[in-house]
Structure formats: structure tokens, C-alpha cells
Amino acid sequence: MLTGSDEEAALVKAMRAAFPNTKHLFCMLHCDNNVRDHVTKAGVQMAIKQELLKLLFGSQGLASASNEGKFDNRTVQPRHCSMYDSTVPPPKVTYLNALSPKS
């Protein structure tokens, strides 16, 4: 069984309490909006914000990967992101831990 929500903390906590043996997923639209809000508040330049949102939520973005192979092929590497700061190593992301919200 899967449950889903808009990342509202109290709802996520209640779903985990009510359905402890399920995976909980977040709505892609709400995730897009949350990332957009966070990078805007952080003062990220418009061009970088647009590229980040495309890499995450675009038609060929991480969020639309339907399986582990596609996700891994879409994982951002510094050479694929023209505005990526190559002095900062990219985080290690896997398909399965990207599907699950952090506790």
C-alpha cells in the first residue's frame, strides 16, 4: 500500500502512525512548488533556478523517471549542468531513497 500527500508535516506524521508499513510519496506538483519557493527564498539566480527545476521536474527530469535505470541515467552530474559549481560534489541519490521522504 502507498500513501501520498503534499508534504504537510502533520499529515505525513499521521499517515505514518496510521499506516506504519506503507511507503509514503509526495505529490510532484507540491514538490515542484516547494523547491521553487525554497530556491527563490534562498536568492538563487533565475537561470539556475529554471535549470534546476527542469532537471528535477521537466519531462525528462528525475521526478518523471519510471524506474531505477531511468532515474540513474537522469541523475545530475556536474558536466550535465552548465551552471553547477564543480567545487561542490553532487549528493549521492538513489532511486529508492529519492522515493521515500526522510523521517
Task: Explain what this protein looks like in three dimensions.
The protein has five helices and two strands, in the order βαβαααα. With 103 residues, it is mostly helical. It has a domain at 28-99. Strand 1, helix 1 and strand 2 (23-26) form a beta-alpha-beta unit. Helix 2 packs antiparallel against helix 3. The two termini are 18 Å apart.
Number of strands: 2
The portion of residues assigned to helices is 40-55%
Helix and strand succession? EHEHHHH
Q: Name the shape in a single word.
A: flat
State mean pLDDT (0 to 100 scale): 77
How would you summarize what this structure contains?
With 103 residues, this protein is mainly alpha-helical.
Q: What's the arrangement of secondary structure elements?
A:
Blueprint: E1 2-5, H1 9-18, E2 23-26, H2 28-41, H3 46-57, H4 68-74, H5 95-99
Parallel strand pairs: 1-2
